[in-house]
Amino acid sequence: MARMQLFLLQFLEIVLLAETFFLLGRSSSGDIMMWNSSLIDTQTLISTGRVFQLGFFSPVNDSAIAYIGIRYHDHPPSENEVVWVANRNRSVNASMASLHLTSDGNLILFEGGRKVWSTGTSAELNSARLQLLDSGNLQLIAGDSNRTLWQSFDHPCDSLLPGMKMGFDFRTNTPWQLVSWMNATDPSPGNYILRMETYNVPDFFMVNVNESVKLGRTGPWNGQWFLGLPRMGNSIAMYVNFTYVPNQNNQTYFIDEYQTGSPGLLRLLMNEDRRIQLLIFAGGQWFSNLSLLADDCDDYNRCGRNKVCTRGYVSSYCHCLEGFQNKSVVGCERMEPLSCSSNKFWKEPSMKVPDTENATSQGHISLDECQKLCVEDCSCVAFAVINGPYGCITWRGELLDLRSFTDGDGGDDLYIRLPGSSTTNWKKLVWAIVISALLGIILLCSVGILVRRRRNRALQFRNAEKGSISTLDVLPSYDLHTIKAATNDFSEENKLGEGGFGVVYKGQLDDRQKIAVKKLSRYSSQGPNEFQNELSVIAKLQHRNLVRLLGYCIEGDERLMILEYMENKSLDAFIYDKTRSSLLNWQRRFHIIIGIARGLLYLHQDSRLRVIHRDLKPSNILLDKNMNPKISDFGIARIFEGDNALEDATTRPVGTFGYMAPEYLSRGVFSFKSDVFSFGVIVLEIISGKKNRVFSQTCETDTNLNLLGYVNKLWQEERSLEIVDETLDQSYPTEEVLRCIHMSLLCVQDNSNDRPTMTEVMAMLTSEDQLFTPVIQPAVTSTSSEGDFTRNEISFTLEGR
User: Fold this and answer.
1) Which of 530, 546, 564 lies at the terminal end of a domain, its last residue?
2) pLDDT in tens, 438-473
3) Is 116 exposed, middle or buried (0-12, 13-18, 19+ CB in 10 A)?
4) Are 610 and 641 in contact (CB under 8 A)?
5) Total structural domains within the chain
6) What is the pTM of this model?
7) Residue 93: inside a domain, yes or no?
8) Cα–Cα nearest to 307, from 430, 403, 219
9) Would you say residue 34 has pLDDT above 60?
10) What rounded mean pLDDT belongs to the chain?
11) In what order do the strands lie in the sheet with 114-118?
């Protein structure tokens, strides 16, 4: 989008200055514009066809800088409407530039008297002509024989149009590849290349040309799509047909051509920001239907050798292949070595098969025959039989860049070779005995530890709270008798709520002041450290959108926190309840969103201590009698002094499933952007009245996406308002609601660096400036359970606390 804002493209009317010029009309098919030997001034238009336009343009607000390019004509602009640039290595001064088409068939760009660019063609011709096809191909034609002397399709820039080739020309030792722009205002060759590696099994790679490293891979072609891009088949089948030409005239390439009756235009774009987009023009607008490197599993060899990347709920996780175990940071190694007699195989379904650099195509044979070939080859470690031109493929050495597709709607079956019958029965028996003995010892130890923990829990509280009491001497300390009297001895009718920490009770002191008493359960997962942490955090923070701490009580085994009473309890009691949610009109919902944002901004930036909440969710947003929101529950919050430690990590992430940022959930890394992610989820829940985690289970939609994924899908389709809570009955300002939805999608982007800060969020909510577009898809992978994560790796809450 930034590129389009900076473009000032001027394709002016043609004024041809050469004496020998004459303009030809359209061909009988009406698909070309042509002109003969001529001198073309930069102040003039060169050619306009039905679909494309050729002319000089300036990508910056400086008409003195000029390039010759081809762009779409009479279509709404896409991310970048220029599809080809002739002189991309060097711009020209517009006032000094001229374009010559010589009679012997050479197109030359001059700046003054100096040649800047040319087609490099010449022949003994009587005449030559230039034609711009509706395909976007600029062709230099010998006038006497209609022979093509040169064409722009042989020199792609950052865009692949139907009819172009991607591959390698062994005659000239040159590749047909896409090279990104340097940046949005500089069309010179950039840092990223999409090219086909001409191994025995061709594969497309995105490469960082400066570092000479692979960044991503499409996987081999199966006749319908590339195995690493399973959505490709459904996305473009109605628009374009891909064909693989393995060896023709000493050339190997893919070519894409429009399907008969294709309903729109298509273009593959290699962006300067490392994105590869498939752009489709249909129904009067452009759509981005496909992206390579759309999630972190698309990063080349993200998990290491012999290791599989799988996309989970909001992020990815890695696991070793069967028969392998973690040995180093670079991946997995075999538990037992292979031998030539090894004939066992393990099937990994729905896989993007490994990097094909060390693969061999064995032709179209059956699965059994392919397995037999692998068994007979001592160096074969895996095989697959895929559709398309390759058939049976076998691999040697390490297996790199593996990913699985959990929905079963992509990839292919990969068969991993395992050591054959190397584990004898007596070895299995020994292992069974050892494991049983270990389990018994673990059980006995667990019982002993549990007993000891109960005995020492009171002592842990007292030791942990010595520092806590000294830091809270500015707060009133209540005795247990007073609190019991205020809550009617913690009676059931005074109970306000309950969570992992314990129970909250309503109370009233002798001076008739209403209070909320948070009572830590003796069996709570939040121990003395969390209690002390919350006391310390709340005591040092004062803001109208944070719950105020009135005092505390530490007596015997009781740990009580005295908080201001919030008449309307928590936000989740309203937004998920169809009856109570009708009490929240849009003005109140927006007021709550603004209040939460202000509270977070104070925590992140404006307070004396910078705080990451780490467990932001609707049940931790309390509402006073005027429906003002206040953030509560700082048991797992982290405090940072000044600008230090703006990112940290933990070996055991804690929080609530559905609100935890992907980098925190998968790697334990948290920062202020983790709270921003949670805030984005909350805003979408406030707008829709639906829970993110159980959205696909409770809503009748045509998708199994969670709330984030479904909102993103609607936003891409410009149907965002369909998610708005039906209780609002369309009585809301459309632009303000759309702005909140857009802002939320920016907050829940998968990459934390792409999310805004709370300062930027407040600016988005309180101004009318145009918001930028999310650079990647949000964390939208759907799942209905937490089964993708093991209990010893993560601690999370399934319902509000």
Assistant:
1) 564
2) 887 888 887 777 656 655 554 444 444 444 444 455
3) buried
4) yes
5) 5
6) 0.52
7) yes
8) 403
9) no
10) 79
11) 38-41, 97-101, 107-111, 114-118
